[in-house]
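Changelog-linked ticket: zinc ion example.
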Amino acid sequence: MKELAVIETVKNGGVFALNSSDFEGRRMTINEVVAILSAFDAFWQYQGDPCVQKPHALLKSGKHSNGFINCKEVLDYPLLCMLLAHEMLKEAKSHLAQDVLATIGGVAASAYSALDPGFCLAWLLSKEYNHRIKAFKAEKDDKGNPTIIRGGIDPSLNVLVINELMTTASGSTWETKQAVLKTNGDKPAPKVLDKAIVLMHRSKDFQLPDGSLVVPVFHFDIENFEPENCPYCQVGSQAIKPKVGNNWNILHGWA
Ligand SMILES: [Zn+2]
């Protein structure tokens, strides 16, 4: 299917009719994934330069942002999660050699929103390369960080780290990698592939703190700012919570 046809299908309510075969021989485009996210009110991005007339987003973290992506709204649907996992598989194939792909013994993802795409990607890799690929889950610790993988991991396994969304280099992608490396305690650790795959990359960082590469499936020029350093506040733009009251429509300029 061509890009325009996909976007029309989604806009006409046909998002669940999409199939991975509609994207055969090519990659899903950024416009297509934005259309899919938008069908669930899960995407907004500031248009143009900062200006007083257009508000920007106040995130739950207290930071300000020129964009908003809520992958969960899409990834909670198995059909759409699997559709996007196919795009992660294409990314893996274009950045990892065939003999490396064939050695993957596990896919590690963090609680909660990355778990389903991690499982779906492990399933796709299992079908194509190795029936015995495991899906490892980094659970949240009492601080809410994904640092715990229960039961350890066979140190002979090569583990691919994935994430559904990455904002900072030291965030959950890095924590998932650390969880894999630390899960065996004092015993030998499994190996982690030197490229992590991120479905939605809204970050300036293309490396983790150890210098290993992050491979985005979809990259967005979206930034977060501390309120005191926010270029949008500096021109008088108002910071509003995206999903409160009529704010979603206001951000999009629909209200
Ligand atoms: Zn601001």
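Closing comment: Example verified and attached. The two ends are 33 Å apart (CA to CA). The chain is about 30% helix and 20% strand.
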